[in-house]
Amino acid sequence: MVHHFNYLLLIPLMVAAAAAAGDEFMNENSQLFPSAATTAIHLPSDPVPPSCPALNPNLNYRPVIGILSHPGDGASGRLSNDTNASYIAASYVKFVESAGARVIPLIYNEPPQLLEKKLNLVNGVLFTGGWAKTGLYFSTVQTVFKKVLEKNDAGDHFPVIAICLGFELLTMIISQNQSILEQFSAADQAATLQFIANTNLNGTVFQRFPPDLLQKLSTDCIVMQNHHVYVSTVMGQHYPVTGFQWHPGKNAFEWGLSTIPHSEDAVRVTQHVANFFVSEARKSSNRPPAREVLDNLIYNYTPTYGGKAGRGYDEVYIFT
Ligand SMILES: *[C@@H]1O[C@H](CO)[C@@H](O)[C@H](O)[C@H]1NC(C)=O
Ligand SMILES: *[C@@H]1O[C@H](CO)[C@@H](O)[C@H](O)[C@H]1NC(C)=O
Ligand SMILES: *[C@@H]1O[C@H](CO)[C@@H](O)[C@H](O)[C@H]1NC(C)=O
Ligand SMILES: *[C@@H]1O[C@H](CO)[C@@H](O)[C@H](O)[C@H]1NC(C)=O
């Protein structure tokens, strides 16, 4: 995959500074509902009902996101001590679903052919946070990432978002340097994000942020991270890859730490990032057989509530 690296320069967008502080359901082939935002109010007395705008034939309105599971139970053994266990925090699933996509779990230690088959059923991939930086997990991230780049090279628009550990692993993979990461002392807290001077936000995750929210990113503590000053958000120059060293999904969906911001603005950040990711996935032309998608959706699994411990994730999907 060496030839990709020239094109995979990650452009830093931001650094962060830690602050001190029934029939309503559609079936598989039915039309989408008209969007309220696109139609003027229609009065019964109007002679001709307004027609709904045509759907964009270039977009996939049924995107599916693959989320790679991480070793362990996500709860320090409180839920499972199975050495083969891996998990996906349900907050990542909700994050994706909240923006109009469904999820297929990519289980990191399942047979490679199965993983590849599932990768062909999705329109984008999310690499989660966690701690595993070596072994099978690292090599699976590497393999999945390579295949994602190949999909893009072959002409599909196939986005990736990499959060925290995911971002760090992509940094190691792209730089081919296992020691590129600097040590940091973890201190979970809300933070501000500072844009790098003269950053062009066009085409980035921040393009869709309204001006008031962009402003608040740098003044209010509305994102959750755990480092001091560092590069916090990057995007690929030639690939739809975005990395976050903060946790865009937690604001709306995780309650275990008192430091996670839950203000309306913090939740708006979660929503805009999710909308960005899924809007990228709608550009993917991959249209796998519907039945195969259904058979592999995360709806075939049940999450476990672990939030009563008062720490860690509220809900996790565990795969053994
Ligand atoms: C896992 O092992 C720990 C330590 O022995 C134990 O406290 C915990 O209850 C075990 N978890 C489960 C789900 O059995
Ligand atoms: C480990 O988990 C994976 C994914 O669920 C499964 O495919 C594999 O058979 C499991 N291996 C063992 C030894 O249980
Ligand atoms: C890997 O990254 C570290 C930290 O930036 C640097 O000191 C080292 O020279 C790099 N190694 C290689 C082979 O580039
Ligand atoms: C933003 O990016 C799009 C697509 O890359 C391009 O067509 C457009 O001209 C850009 N707009 C600005 C203001 O740079």
UniProtKB/TrEMBL annotation:
Pfam families: Peptidase_C26. The lineage of its organism: Eukaryota, Viridiplantae, Streptophyta, Embryophyta, Tracheophyta. One of its GO terms (molecular function) is gamma-glutamyl-peptidase activity. The active site is at C164 (nucleophile), H247 (proton donor), H247. Its EC number is 3.4.19.9. GO terms for cellular component: extracellular region; vacuole. This is folate gamma-glutamyl hydrolase. Keywords: Hydrolase, Secreted, Signal. It is found in: Secreted, Extracellular space. GO terms for biological process: tetrahydrofolylpolyglutamate metabolic process. It comes from Oldenlandia corymbosa var. corymbosa. It comes from the Eukaryota. InterPro entries: Class_I_gatase-like (IPR029062), Pept_C26_g-glut_hydrolase (IPR015527), Peptidase_C26 (IPR011697).
